[in-house]
Every structure is written in C-alpha cells, then in structure tokens.
Amino acid sequence: MTWLVTGGAGYIGAHVVHALRDAAAQDPRLRPVVLDDLSSGHADFVPDDVPFVRASVLDTAAVRAALVEHEVTGVIHLAGFKYAGVSVQRPLHTYEQNVTGTAHLLDAMAAAGVDQVVYSSSAAVYGTPDVDVVTESTPTHPESPYGESKLVGEWLLRDQGVATGLRHTSLRYFNVVGSGSPDLYDSSPHNLFPLVLDALASGRTPRVHGVDHPTPDGTCVRDYVHVADLAASHVAAARALADGRPLERVYNLGSGEGLSVAQVMTTVARVTGIDFTPEVGPRRPGDPARIVASGEAAARDLGWAVRHTPEQMVASAWEARRRTP
C-alpha cells in the first residue's frame, strides 16, 4: 500500500513526500511513491529510499503501470503548470498540462482500481473576489487560464466521483513559501520569494509588479502559507481518505489574513539585513489584487494551522536559497 505523489520532485511535492515518509513510520499505508517528468522538478529532491518513476501524467500507460507496480491505493496530485501570469500567454499549454493531464491520471486510476485522490487546486479559482476573506462557498470567477484549469480539474474529480465512486478532496491555496528543509527550495522563475531572494543574493534590486492595485498600499495582497504547514495538511487529507472518513469536496488552506507585496519586501529586508527599495514594474496579467482565504473548515477536518510567522517563512526560504547549488 502506497500513495503516489505526482509532481513529487517539485518544491511543494517534495515537501509532501518528506511528510508522507515521516508519517509512514507510524502508518505504513502512507508510504510515498513519486511520479514526475522533471520538467520543473529536481531528482535530488526525492529521498533515496522513495521509489521514483520518471513520467508525465499525460502518459496514461506509464501512470497505470506505476500504480499497479507499486500497489498504489491513493494519489496526491500536484503535477501541473502553475504560473497564472504565464498561462495568459500559454493557455493551450496550461490546459494540456492541468486539464488533460488530470483526465489522463483519472483514467489510469480507474483502470488500476485506485479510488482516492487529494488534488492540489488553487485560490486562483476565485479570481478577484468581492469579499475580504473567501470561504469555500465564495463564488468562483477565475481570471487566468491557470485558475480556470484548476477549477476544471475540480470538476473532473467531482464528475468521476459520481461516475465511479472516486473519493476525493481538493485543497485550494495561493502563495506557498518558505522551506521545511534547507535542501528543498523554491526554484520557480515566477514566484515572489525566489525572485526577491535571488535578486538579493546576486546583488540586484527586487521588483514589485504593480503598485496601483485597489489595496491599501497599491501592491497585491496574498495569503502566504508555509510549505511545511501545507504538506502536513496533504498528509492529513490522505490519511482521512485512507481511514474512510468523509471530507468536503474542497478546502481552503488560508490564514484569514493577508500580506501585501510591500509588506513582504519590508519583512525580507528586516530578516536578511539587506536594506533595499524595490523597483516598480507593471502589473502582471492574470494577477488578482487580493486573495485571502479562511482556513476554518480545513482546521476542523484536517488539523490545518498556520504555524509559521512571516519572519520564519522568510528566514527558512533565505537559508535554503543560500544553500542552493
């Protein structure tokens, strides 16, 4: 009995794999297996004692073979293309990776008799909501192909549940930051933390994309959550499904509070000891002005909690960045 983690060699996926491996010491049902095509992941993020299958979720035959060979009983699906801004320029690629890829995965799961999945969704499904704090009942109005593709992924799970009895839950979150281990770092060329820390490490000035948003200081407001906290909730969701406990169709993993990009910059300067005034660039397409989510339902059912302060988020990311090869 194992859990397949698609995208398990990526930044978030690797943290989930490490958390599953730790949990498996007490609950062997949660032993992880990784499937990743390494398009953005890193093979050295996968622990030596965790089986690794190099394949794409678009390859139904390879996914089915991995499910059968490793006696997989559940899947945590993180593989996908996650850049909202870039998705505006590459909508077809985004849909292929996130929608077609999820459909192929579900096809392989059905063929192999695997009937439980935890899906990595996104707060981007909400677009720019007209409430200060979104809940799971907030209407979805995605504003980018990325957000649209994640919402369609949720629909695929819902419909497959009706058709085959698939047991599933989707976790919606936005800005995942920090590091649970100095060896695991965010290498995204688009995420705020690595962009800022890479700039500082190389002596450049970080940039803010847009200071004219309808927010108190004009910069985007986001719900920043630490990757280790996020990984723990993926494991909790997998365990709940394995136990046969009922779960909601979707959960928000949010703090209920937001930080603006300007506030993040101030925190980075304070934690790193590097004083700087960020450059100002234009808004990025597909970037909502504010998304802050309540995590109350996830706290009730998945033990979700924000256990790291903004300073700890920055400090752990900075330590991992300085150890980056």
Shape: globular
CATH superfamily of the largest domain, by name, is NAD(P)-binding Rossmann-like Domain
Query: Strands of the biggest beta sheet: in what spatial order?
Result: 3-2-1-4-5-6-11
Mean pLDDT: 95
Order of helices and strands: EHEEHEHHEHEEHEEEHEEHEEHH
Radius of gyration: 19 Å
Enumerate the spans where pLDDT stays under 50 for 5 or more consecutive residues: none
Query: Describe the biggest sheet?
Result: 7 strands, parallel
The portion of residues assigned to helices is 40-55%
CATH topology (level 3) name of the largest domain: Rossmann fold
State the end-to-end distance: 35 Å
Percent range for β-strand residues: 15-25%
Q: Give the tally of β-strands.
A: 14
> What is the number of helices?
10
CATH architecture of the largest domain: 3-Layer(aba) Sandwich
Descriptive tags:
about 325 residues; Rossmann fold; UDP-galactose 4-epimerase, domain 1; 2 domains; 7-stranded parallel sheet; 3-stranded mixed sheet; 10 helices
